[in-house]
Amino acid sequence: MRDAIEGTYALRPFPWPHLLIDGFLPPDTLSQCLGEISNDVYDFEFEARGTGRIEFSLLKSKTLWRAIYSKDTIVTLRHAFGAGVKLNKHNMIQLRRMNQKTPDFPLHNDFTSGEDTVASFLYLSPGWFAGCGGYFHMFESNEHKNPALSIEPIQNRFLAFRTKSSHWHSVERVCDWERLSALALWDIEEGCGEERVAQNESPTVPPG
Fold first, then answer.
1. CB neighbours (10 Å) of residue 82?
2. Model confidence, pTM
3. Could you tell me the pLDDT band of residue 193, with boundaries at 50, 70 and 90?
4. pLDDT reported for residue 164
5. CATH label, 2-8+17-197, candidates 3.30.70.890, 2.60.120.620, 2.40.30.110, 3.60.21.10
6. Max Cα separation, the chain?
7. Any idea where the domains of the chain sit in the sequence?
8. Residues 121 and 179: beta-carbon distance below 8 Å
9. Nearest 5 degrees, angle CA 14-CA 26-CA 122?
C-alpha cells in the first residue's frame, strides 16, 4: 500500500476511468487478513439482482478493516478521483463471495440517483488462473455484447471506479474456485482537501 501512496494515482481511461493497483497490501498484512477470515465463521446473505445474485457478509477481519479504511486508502482515492471520500456507513465493508453455485452477474451499472460514490474491490483469493473465470468485464455501453476490457481477479489486486450510469460491467461466474473480495463503497465529498484528511482522526474498525 505504501508503494501505491508514493506512486501514481492516474486512472486508466479505457473503456471508462478506473483505478487498478496490484500488490495493494504488504505480504505479511495480507497473510494476517486471510488467516483472520479463515478462522472466523461467515453467514453469507443472498440478494437477487436480475439473473445474478450477490453473496455478502459484514467483514470481520479487523486487520483488513484497518488496511482498507485507512488514511492511505482515503488519500489514494482522493488523488485518483479528484475528490475527498468517506466510507459509506450503510454499506460498511463487505466480504463478497462467488463460488461454483453463484451465477454470472449480468451486465449492469451501479448508478443510484442522488448518490455520488466510488466502489472499491480488493481481491483476496489465491490460486487464480484463466480457467477459474471470475473476470470483471467492462463494456463501452450496454449495447455492446463483448467486453472492451476484462480484469482478472488476481489476489491482492485493488480495483476502484465511480458508480456512474455509463460504467457498464458484468462479472463472470467462477469454475472450481472461490472468489473472495472485500467491497467498500465511498461517498464523494466534493471540495475535501488534503488538510481535512490530515486533520481527521485515524479511521477505526467497528466493534466486535
1. 11
2. 0.90
3. very low
4. 97
5. 2.60.120.620
6. 47
7. 2-8+17-197
8. no
9. 40
